[in-house]
Structure formats: structure tokens, C-alpha cells
Write a structure and sequence with these properties.
The structure is a single chain. The protein has 2 domains: about 200 residues, P-loop containing nucleotide triphosphate hydrolases (Rossmann fold), CATH 3.40.50.300; about 180 residues, 3-Layer(aba) Sandwich (Rossmann fold), CATH 3.40.50.300. About 40% of the residues lie in helices and about 15% in strands. It contains 17 helices and 14 strands. The strands form 2 sheets. Strands 3-4-2-5-6-1-7 form a 7-stranded parallel beta sheet, sandwiched between helices. The chain has a 7-stranded parallel beta sheet with strand order 10-11-9-12-13-8-14, sandwiched between helices. The two termini are about 40 Å apart. The structure holds adenosine-5'-diphosphate and magnesium ion. The site of magnesium ion (MG) has 5 residues, from helix 3.
């Protein structure tokens, strides 16, 4: 299948060509024609499969076809869970709309609202927003959503994880009833289906999860190591292997900061990215990492979710996630676009329960080894409290491969 076969306008095809895409991804192939037909769509495909273009291209075409340039009103609203994602989607919308007369902008919190408001005043067709700032500016009457024809909920699973359900409900009440709804998500959990039921109108469901193949393309490795020696080991691995563009996951914001400091002390350029960082610091860290000025990006799950960092050679789990699905999302950051990647997990005795849960979810055991000089001390026994914490998730992932996480209380929200 080619992009030409999807019913897209030449002006969009030209922008696609300039992006260097030769053929649509599976999710794009499925979603674009349906959206062009005006259907409500509930789409799920793994991170990195091109979902953004999957909704942006048809959305632009629909708006462009019935153009009302004179009096621009917000006709399409794209909601994303984080500022980085909003900025990323906006970049994409701008690129794809190079040759069509569509104006777009992005609004998110953590920065001065003034420049955002002044752009809104000039009139725009497509608004990309995080829920909080959107409601904020709406309450201040700086924008109206009463002309929205197309609503997109991007990374919807992460929106629920981050507790945006209520904000989403509020936003729904501000939209016209008659509209097209598109919901994109990395997973098809029960929670996502429930959300979709309340918002979408007779949706077509599309799933483009290529089974486990994405995970299979990744070399996975576990190093058994004591907790107290993880920092030392990670420094050794990065230095010995001369690794660059390493994405490291920690479970907490505090852990991310601590590790980043230690890496810098060891002369490894590193930056942390998490919810407590200012917008400026997060943007700077991500840009530095993409430009390879920063070797290591230390991130928490929520901060990293959906970030478009193509072709990562190395992902390191400094700590295993207690939600097994997060492991799959984390390692999905490597081996993108056909390139092989390596995912390394540092596992201490307390995390063995998490490892078991993860192996069950991915359906195979992950080869485990010890690094010379870092053999775990056999006298260190698992912390009984943490063991219980891990087991509580046992029931979650038995439902199905694509099942989402539970809304249970043991998920670590301090991220
Ligand atoms: P997702 O939202 O599914 O995680 P993105 O939309 O962020 O994925 O896209 C991931 C990467 O793939 C981006 O760098 C994007 O430019 C690229 N991409 C998207 N569509 C294609 C395509 N058809 N061919 C090649 N690369 C693509
Ligand atoms: Mg996405």
C-alpha cells in the first residue's frame, strides 16, 4: 500500500514525501481511509508506529476540504496528556500542513499564557492542548470550543493514568454534540474502552499491534545486582560499551534526579526528565538528548511516554516497573524502525517478583546474568513488604496481552 492509495490530497502527499516517508505504517493504512469517511475511530497501536500522522493527515484533509479561511474558528481539537506530547503533535501538524492553508497552535501549562492567548486571538483551525491549560484558558474566555468538528484524544491510556478523566469529562461538555471523535492509544484496556463508550459514536475499532514482534526485535538482558551497586554498574556499562543516546528509566522523580547527579559526577553527560521539572528544563533536556549533546536521559515512565526519540540503541531499566505493561512500553523505545536495540534491566533481589510478572506478560524468560565484580551478595534477602507490593499486580495482566493496568492503589504515582 502506498500513501497515494489512501485518498489523500496532493498537497498533503507532498508534505509526506518531504518528511521522507515512503509508505504508510499499518495503523495509518487502517485509520486514514476510515477517518476520511467521517467515522469515529478507536485505534490502538504500540508507541512509535506513527499514530500521529494516522489522525493528523485525514484531519487536515477534512478541514482543508471545507475551508472557512475568513473567519477561523477552532474546528479540530487534539488533547494530549503531556506538554512534550502536545509540542510534538504540533510540530507534526505544522509539517504536514505546509502546503494547505490551515493554522494551528499548541497550548499547555507551565509557561506564560500570554503568547498562547495572542495566537488564539488571531484565529486558528487546529488546537493542540493539554487538558489543564485548555480548561484554564476556556474559563478565562480566551477560546471557544463550540465549533469543534473533530476531537482527537491522543495517548488516551496515559491520560487516564495521569488522572485526566474528570478534565476530559468537563471538556466534552464544552464541545458540540455533533462531531467526529478519534481516540488513539497504545493499549486497549478496559478503562480505555469505557472512556471510548462515553465519547465515541459507533466507533470503528482498529488494532495494529504486530503481536510480540516489536519486543522480539529487541535484545533483552537482565543483570542481577545489589541495589546499592546499581549506580556503579550503570556507569561501568555506559563507559565500557561507549554507549550514547541511552534512555534510563527510574521509578521515581527523586531516583531520576539522584542518578543524573551521580552520572554527571562520573563525567557522563546526563539530564533528567520528569513531572517536577519546569517546562524549559524538560524541553532543553530532550533537545540536548536528540542532538546528542547529552548522552543519557533519565526518565520516569509518565514523562517518557509517547516521546518521539527515534532509533534509540539502548534502554536501561535502572529499576523495573511494578506495572508489567510499562516494561513493554519502556523497551519499545529501542529497536525502532527496524534497527536492533538493546534493553538492559538492573534487577536486585527485591525486584524478582516484578521480573516474574514481566516475563509472564511478554511470554518468555529474559536471559539473566551477573557482571564480574557485581555479583549479588547472597546474604541480602528480599524485603518482605516490597514482595507483597509486586504480587498485588498478579491479577492485572492475566486478563490478556493488551489488557491495561488496573486502577489499583499500588501503582506508584510519584513519577
Ligand atoms: P506513535 O504516536 O504511534 O508513538 P509517532 O506518530 O510519534 O508514533 O511516530 C513515530 C515516528 O515514526 C516519528 O518519528 C514519525 O516521524 C515516524 N513515522 C510516522 N509515520 C511514518 C511512515 N509512514 N514512515 C516512516 N516513518 C514514519
Ligand atoms: Mg503518539
Amino acid at each position: 500500500m502506498k500513501f497515494n492509495d489512501l485518498g489523500l490530497e496532493p498537497s498533503l502527499l507532498k508534505a509526506i514525501q518531504e518528511k521522507g516517508y515512503t509508505k504508510p505504517s499499518l495503523i495509518q493504512e487502517k485509520s486514514i481511509p476510515l477517518i476520511l469517511k467521517g467515522k469515529d475511530v478507536l485505534a490502538s497501536a504500540q508507541t512509535g508506529t506513527g499514530k500521529t500522522a494516522g489522525f493528523t493527515l485525514p484531519l487536515l484533509q477534512i478541514l482543508f476540504k471545507q475551508n472557512t479561511r475568513k473567519n477561523r474558528k477552532i474546528r479540530a481539537l487534539v488533547l494530549t496528556p503531556t506538554r512534550e506530547l502536545a509540542a510534538q503533535v504540533f510540530e507534526n501538524v505544522k509539517e504536514y500542513s505546509t502546503y494547505v492553508d490551515i493554522r494551528s497552535t499548541v497550548i499547555f501549562g507551565g509557561v506564560n499564557q500570554k503568547p498562547q492567548v495572542s495566537i488564539l486571538r488571531k484565529g486558528i483551525d487546529v488546537l493542540i492542548a493539554t487538558p489543564g491549560r485548555l480548561l484554564d484558558l476556556h474559563n478565562q474566555k480566551f477560546l471557544s470550543l463550540s465549533n469543534v468538528e473533530i476531537l482527537v484524544l491522543d495517548e488516551a491510556d496515559r491520560m487516564l493514568d495521569m488522572g485526566f478523566q474528570r478534565d476530559i469529562n468537563k471538556i466534552m461538555n464544552l464541545l458540540p454534540r455533533q462531531r467526529q471523535n478519534l481516540l488513539f492509544s497504545a493499549t486497549f484496556s478496559k478503562e480505555i474502552k469505557a472512556l471510548a463508550k462515553g465519547i465515541l459514536n459507533q466507533p470503528v475499532m482498529i488494532e495494529a499491534t504486530p503481536g510480540n514482534t516489536t519486543v522480539d526485535a529487541i535484545i533483552q538482558r537482565v543483570y542481577k545486582v545489589d541495589k546499592s551497586r546499581k549506580t556503579e554498574l550503570i556507569i561501568k556499562l555506559i563507559k565500557e560499551g561507549n554507549w550514547f543516546q541511552v534512555l534510563v528509566f527510574t521509578r521515581t522523580k527523586h531516583g531520576a534526579n539522584k542518578l543524573t547527579k551521580k552520572l554527571i559526577q562520573a563525567n557522563i553527560s546526563a539530564a533528567a526528565i520528569h513531572g517536577n521539572k519546569s517546562q524549559g528544563a524538560r524541553t532543553k533536556a530532550l533537545a540536548g538528548f536528540k542532538e546528542r549533546l547529552v548522552k543519557v536521559l533519565v526518565a520516569t515512565d509518565i514523562a517518557a511516554r509517547g516521546l518521539d526519540i527515534p532509533l534509540l540503541p539502548h534502554v536501561i531499566n535502572f529499576e523495573l516497573p511494578n506495572v508489567p505493561e510499562d516494561y513493554v512500553h519502556r523497551i519499545g523505545r529501542t529497536g525502532r524502525a527496524g534497527a536492533k536495540g538493546e534493553a538492559v534491566s538492573l534487577v536486585c533481589v527485591d525486584e524478582k517478583v516484578y521480573l516474574k510478572d514481566i516475563e509472564k506478560l511478554v511470554g518468555s524468560s529474559i536471559p539473566s546474568e551477573t557482571k564480574e565484580g557485581f555479583e549479588p551478595d547472597p546474604n541480602i534477602k528480599p524485603d518482605p513488604i516490597k514482595q507483597k507490593g509486586g504480587n498485588r499486580h498478579k491479577s492485572n495482566h492475566n486478563r490478556s496481552k493488551n489488557s491495561g493496568r488496573s486502577s489499583g492503589g499500588s501503582r506508584n504515582y510519584n513519577r
